[in-house]
Amino acid sequence: MADPSARWHGDNYQSRQFWIHAASLIDEHRTDVAEVTFEAHGPKAFDDVVVRYEPGRPNRRSPEPVIQDHYQIKWHTDLSGHFGFRDLIDPKFISGTAVSLLERLRDAKRTAPPNSAFHFVTTHDLTQEDPLRELVSNVDHSIRLKVLKEGKTPRSRMGEVREVWCEHLKVTEEELFEILTGFHIETRARSLETLRSDVAMRFRSVGLNGHEADTIFPYDEFARELVVKQIRSLDRAAFKALCEREGWYLQKRAPSKRGVAIQTYAPRATPADLLLAAPENTLVLADNFDDRQLKKEHSWDQIRDDVKAFLSKKLQETTDFRLFLDAPSSLGFLAGACLGLKSGAAVELVQMGHGNPNQVWDTSDGRGGPAPSIEVLRIGDGQDIALVMSLTRNALPKVQEYLHRALPQVGTVVHVTPSGGAAQVSVAGGEHALSIAAFAGQAVSDLAQPGGRTHVFISAPNAVSFFLGQQADSMGVCIPYEFDLKKEVDASYRPSFEIDPRRP
After folding, report:
1. Contact call for residues 88 and 101 (beta carbons, < 8 A)
2. DSSP state at residue 250
3. Helix (H, G, I), strand (E, B), or coil: what is residue 85?
């Protein structure tokens, strides 16, 4: 008898995506979410989960709001699979015999409401060296149409993609661009267990039982019951009534924390499962930046002072924060320094990142992990220290190059790595992030010399940057650095600002 567990896991993966969105139906801050549908009656291939908004959610790439999000969700048993641009025109790629994913997208756009967005979510990855890797945005998973338009002939790299896709769809290039507008490809999506944790956390944030300690996750089976009963769509009133009828509400709800946001990147698509802070609690600094690069006419010192003033004002209003950091690691570190251990602030962070979009991390979330490895390297006689946090990628080689060229006063390097090696998922959650930051801060504090400075190089989730910033008082004068990750200038580091614990 064939093992049915893979099919069950696939069904559960889809249902957990549904529950994450459904929780917004009773979130008093997500009044834009009007209806969430599970296994909808079309459009075909983008009907696993459908989220409808009234009047619409913000659209990063257009002034027109998104009216509906349509999801095609593909879970696989392992991470060995990969795909490229030609797979999108192969029916076998979506387990079909006659119609490809791009044809499904074309047909879906004909029947869905205007200003709908379409998401292909898969646990597989993009094939190395395939042109599709250059076309999928790492900001919001959308297709980078500007890149697709590069090259004038079919012999060019993107010209070949355009020719193959246009010929398959029997459309012109302009019609192809219209079909691909609003299309998103999310690869290496969250694991099945991570999704369970996300559902539990999301449910608890709106006052529902997360069932974290239960061996069996009851919401998986309940999703199947909804399908059997032909209850596929839930609006706000229906979901609230369902939660009340089934006894899903917690008896006691934790006091809500005020959402506070610092935003330097251009506005992204509004998160589907969590609300950003209210406008009056949001510091928008996007005009100071060109993507990740600070514009020449602006200064890091002024940004530091603006952030300090903003957080000081918010701290006077409340000590309970849900902090959104859509910003470089330097500002995560600075926010931690401003809301340090002596400030009295109780902070939870909405961590954004690979395989982990918009998950609430706090220091008691139960997601701990192993202690980091800490290596101390003596590279000279200088009294300054370079703290290198290599959690998501190994930053040490580039940092060493920069130290040799620009910071001869650094005599000691403290290199912090996760126990299993640098990776996007090396930090389990808020409790783990705090632990890593505490170990790193203590290592620097033990080595710090009077008059010396600590130069901070971070390749880690912003939650780690924040918790590390809370250790700043013990590390003396700190200078965080930003890396030219997209190689827009010199693919190296630049200092941001100085944080002096002696200066208010």
Report:
1. yes
2. -
3. helix
pLDDT tens for each residue of 352-365:
654 444 578 888 87
For residues 413 and 349, membership in a common domain is answered with no
pLDDT band per the 50, 70, 90 thresholds, residue 401: very high
Condensed to tens digits (0 to 9), the pLDDT of residues 77-115 reads 998 999 999 999 999 999 999 999 999 999 999 999 999
DSSP bridge pairs for 112: none
Got the DSSP string for 379-410? --S-SEEEEEEESSS--HHHHHHHHHHH-TTE
Given a contact cutoff of 8 angstroms between Cβ atoms, the answer to whether 480 and 497 are in contact is yes
- What is the number of domains present in the chain? 3
What are the residue numbers of the active site? Answer: 48, 72, 74
**Helix 329-338 with 462-469: angle, nearest 10 deg:** 40
- Mark which of 156, 171, 186 sits at the end of a domain: 186
| 3-class DSSP state of 385 | strand
- At residue 159, the pLDDT reads 97
- Phi, psi for residue 458 in degrees, rounded to 5: -120, 125
Cα(142)–Cα(66) distance, integer angstroms = 14
β-pair type (373-378, 410-417)? antiparallel
Q: In 94-119, which positions are buried (b, 16+ CB within 10 angstroms) versus exposed (e)?
A: beeeeebbbbbbbbbbeebeeebbbb
Q: Do residues 196 and 212 touch, judged by C-beta distance below 8 A? A: no
Domain that holds residue 85: 27-186
Count how many Cα atoms sit within 13 Å of the Cα of residue 437 in the half-sphere of its side chain.
Answer: 30
The structure tokens listed for 184 are 């998103």
Q: Would residue 132 count as lying in a domain?
A: yes
Contact 470, 437 (CB under 8 A): yes
Residue 235 sits at φ, ψ, to 5 deg, of -95, -175
Phi and psi of 254, rounded to 5°? -70, 145
Check the CA dihedral 136-352-371-335 and report its sign.
positive
- Contact present, 431 and 420 (Cβ < 8 Å): no
Coil, strand or helix at 460: coil
**93, 96, 139: which is closest to 120 by C-alpha?**
93
**The pair of three-digit structure tokens given for residue 170, joined into one six-digit string:** 């029997």
β-sheet with 233-235: strand ranges across = 183-186, 116-122, 66-74, 49-57, 33-38, 233-235
Q: Give, to the nearest 10 degrees, the angle between helix 157-169 and helix 173-180.
A: 90
Task: Confirm whether 239 is domain-assigned.
Answer: no
Q: Tell me, what amino acid is at 313?
A: K
Residue 266: closest CA among 68, 59, 120, 460: 59
Is the domain of 322 the same as that of 415? Answer: no
